């Protein structure tokens, strides 16, 4: 019996880990990119961040600085794609944020202002909600933002287990934007600080009377 319990515990732990995932590559256009070439390497394998007050919400555990991460050259208006090790498994929104570095993206810890450029929320149809759970996410650098180096951050807020603490799967790429404009993006927010435990999108029960949803964080910036 003891061996059976031990094996069952290991199996459950393995199953839980296999349901996790990592944003690990970034590329220009719709390509899949090279793992950790332009995305900061995390040190918590595929585990999520769960503390709303943690600086790890910015760029994941171990992602406070660039280390050996390269910086991707992009033009304002270019498409880019984040790729995971496996498709997003847990229901919840996926969002993309940017924060301009005071100097280089490699040295930047993400303590400045962040603005959101895209949300993938749920689609409601016939009383059911569907989520955009994929292994790649493609979006576009706003054409009007100033040129310079930025952190480009992607997150999935996993709200698949109502009553338990939601999970944040986060990755940060380093980019240098050329050919930009002169618009100052707004609204902005600090991370941590942008997300509250009382946010309806954080506390939502997706299995009970789930008919609408507001993605946490500031509104999406558009040019």
Account of the 3D structure:
There is one protein chain. This protein has 223 residues and is mostly beta strands. 11% of the residues lie in helices and 28% in strands. The protein has a 5-stranded mixed β-sheet. A hairpin with a 2-residue loop joins strand 6 and strand 7. The longest helix has 17 residues. The radius of gyration is 18 Å and the shape is globular.
Q: What is the share of helical residues?
A: 10-25%
Instruction: Let me know the number of strands.
Output: 10
How far apart are the first and last residues' alpha carbons, in Å?
A: 63 Å
Overall mean pLDDT stands at: 92
Tell me the radius of gyration.
18 Å
Largest sheet: 5 strands, mixed
The number of helical elements comes to 3
Task: Work out the strand percent.
Answer: 25-35%
Structural class: mainly beta
Shape: globular
Order of helices and strands: HEHEEEEEEEEEH
Question: Largest sheet, order of strands side by side?
Answer: 2-10-9-4-5
pLDDT under 50 segments (min length 5)? Answer: 1-16
